[in-house]
């Protein structure tokens, strides 16, 4: 199945791209997607992924065991400074 990973702010800078399409097996989870990203990630991206928040189809997920569906969008949001 295909999903789209979208990077925002510092995650975009670390990834060196705005988004990418991943091919994952059916039943893949957020954890599986993150493993696939780490497999060929630029040096700084894995560190960003450790502290990032994630949205699947616009909904925040805290459990990386959440299953993804064909065409899902996984947003990677690094911690933001401010108040």
From TrEMBL:
GO terms for molecular function: nucleotide binding. It comes from the Bacteria. Transmembrane segments: none annotated. InterPro entries: Beta-grasp_dom_sf (IPR012675), MOCS2A (IPR044672), Mopterin_synth/thiamin_S_b (IPR016155), ThiS/MoaD-like (IPR003749). GO terms for biological process: Mo-molybdopterin cofactor biosynthetic process. Pfam families: ThiS. The keyword Glycosyltransferase does not apply. Keywords: Nucleotide-binding. GO terms for cellular component: molybdopterin adenylyltransferase complex. The keyword Nucleotide-binding applies. Belongs to the MoaD family. This is Molybdopterin synthase sulfur carrier subunit. It comes from Tamaricihabitans halophyticus.
């Amino acid at each position: 199945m295909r999903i789209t990973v979208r990077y925002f702010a510092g995650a975009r800078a670390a990834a060196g791209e705005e988004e990418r399409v991943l091919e994952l097996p059916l039943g893949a989870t957020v954890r599986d997607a993150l493993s696939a990203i780490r497999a060929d990630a630029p040096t700084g991206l894995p560190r960003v992924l450790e502290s990032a928040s994630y949205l699947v189809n616009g909904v925040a997920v805290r459990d990386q065991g959440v299953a993804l569906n064909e065409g899902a969008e996984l947003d990677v949001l690094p911690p933001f400074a401010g108040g």
